[in-house]
Automatic annotation (TrEMBL):
GO terms for molecular function: serine-type endopeptidase activity. PANTHER family: CEREVISIN-RELATED, PEPTIDASE S8. It comes from Luteimonas granuli. The keyword Protease applies. One of its GO terms (biological process) is proteolysis. SUPFAM superfamilies: Subtilisin-like. This is S8 family serine peptidase.
Length: 462
């Protein structure tokens, strides 16, 4: 099977383009104030221009406005102290996954037994070994007291690896008409996979996340129906996650071919998102994102940025992978640069396991009793969603590959650090990650590995 076909089987969500947000009735606008928030006169002027403020975020001086007035932007431009930009949607694709069906979800799915790290699919998680999560766990650090917000496509709330750690009260959706919990339908769910990598419960079922005792806040900013998510949703998601008390925000999002930054509208929306990231950092929240999956060297094109990974204050994560790990699970090199990963010294903060499907080995391998073509095992194995058979609902698990899978490995390690050091600042967490990372590739800051591939055990050692 060639690389193109493999990637079509299981790569994870990839943002794939831009389109102006619109509906039959109203358009969405991001309004930025020069000060800390919209004053009463500005709010009244927006309403007089035909706008309805759907979200007021004085924390970052931004409001989200809807209007069915075709002349709203022109009218809003006359309001002193405000910059009004029509929202731009990021279109994304959800490829088919390569899945295994797990156990049937029963009435006790949210209260599974403690396992002592004997989850039946843990041996498929080469990424856990690559960053030595067991070393951190054995030292007593499992993320207790830390919270990870997953800004994504929602989660499978009933999945037995997600439910025990999911904080539904603090979870929410910023996708109109869609709830944060995935419907009970079969298929891969990107947000579930990402959340599971970071913080799947250690419960004797399926897999174990990097920080298996961390809490998960699911924040839906990408639609499963239309394949899109706007800047407005991402901005609201960052602010919500911060105010909800997340220690870490994970955004496994990336614009395919990069985000062109030459236009005024895009620049204004990017600046608005920067405000949200700066607010998160100021409140003690670390922001982690994927670099993107275009095999692009981000050092060489000033007109393109990774979004949101390229924003100031965001840790952008590149992906590593083995080659035919299933043939030699004890000695395989787990730290090869993934073939698709964006890179560049100006871009990459750290590297982490993201998986790859470019192996030329087509024979069958057996790992932990599972038989698959050898290249399959090079993907990252994690909760995938649901599998429905008649009236029965089963948990599914999926292999996927992408920088989307790398970012939550880092988010999980950051949660271990927050769990060890309550009240620690993002800059201090970043310093610990940098000090503890394994320096791979060129000495120092490497275009593929950044400051190095993260190491969970070393991160909690000091």
């Amino acid at each position: 099977m060639n690389q193109r076909k493999k990637l079509s089987v299981a790569v994870g969500v990839v943002v794939s383009g831009l389109a102006i947000a619109a509906s039959a009735h109203a358009a969405t606008y991001v309004v930025s104030a020069n000060g800390n928030g919209l004053n009463k006169n500005q709010q009244s002027s927006i309403e007089a221009a035909g706008g309805t403020i759907t979200a007021n975020l004085p924390q970052v001086g931004i409001a989200i406005v809807e209007s069915d007035n075709p002349d709203f932007a022109t009218a809003a431009a006359a309001i002193a102290g405000l910059t009004t930009t029509r929202d731009i949607q990021l279109e994304f694709d959800i490829p088919q996954d390569l899945s295994l069906v797990g156990e049937e979800i029963g009435p006790d799915f949210a209260n599974p037994p403690a396992s002592g790290e004997d989850d039946i699919r843990f041996d498929l998680q080469w990424g856990a070994g690559a960053i030595d999560v067991a070393g951190a766990w054995n030292a007593g650090y499992r993320g207790q007291g830390a919270t990870i917000a997953v800004l994504d496509s929602g989660v499978a709330c009933l999945h037995p690896d997600i439910a025990p750690n999911l904080d539904l009260d603090r979870s929410t959706s910023f996708v109109p008409g869609e709830g944060v919990c995935r419907a009970l339908v079969s298929g891969f769910n990107h947000g579930t996979h990402v959340a599971g990598i970071a913080a799947a419960a250690d419960n004797g079922i399926g897999t174990i996340g990097v920080a298996p005792e961390a809490r998960i806040i699911a924040v839906k900013v990408l639609s499963e129906v239309t394949g899109s998510g706007g800047f407005a949703g991402i901005i609201q998601g960052i602010v919500h996650a911060t105010d909800a008390g997340a220690n870490v925000i994970n955004m496994s999002l990336g614009v395919r071919d990069g985000l062109a930054v030459g236009g005024k509208e895009v620049a204004e929306l990017v600046n608005a998102t920067k405000r949200a990231v700066q607010y998160a950092r100021s409140q003690g929240t670390l922001v982690v994102a994927s670099t993107g999956n275009d095999a692009r060297n981000m050092d060489y094109d000033a007109n393109v940025m990774a979004f949101p990974g390229g924003l100031p204050g965001v840790l952008a994560i590149s992906a590593t992978a083995p080659d035919a790990w299933g043939m030699n699970t004890e000695r395989a090199d787990l730290d090869l640069p993934a073939s698709y990963s964006n890179h560049g010294r100006s871009e990459v903060a750290f590297a982490a396991p993201g998986g790859d499907f470019d192996s030329e080995v087509e024979t069958l391998c057996v790992v932990a009793g599972v038989i698959q073509p050898c290249w399959v095992f090079d993907g990252v194995f994690a909760p995938g969603g649901y599998s429905i058979s008649g009236t029965s609902v089963f948990a599914s698990y999926s292999w996927a590959a992408g920088t989307s899978m790398a970012a939550p490995h880092v988010a999980g390690v950051a949660a271990l650090i927050y769990g060890k050091h309550p009240g620690i600042k993002p800059a201090q967490v970043e310093a610990i990650l940098r000090k503890s990372a394994e320096d791979l590739g060129e000495a120092g800051n490497d275009p593929f590995y950044g400051a190095g591939r993260v190491n969970a055990a070393a991160a909690v050692r000091d």
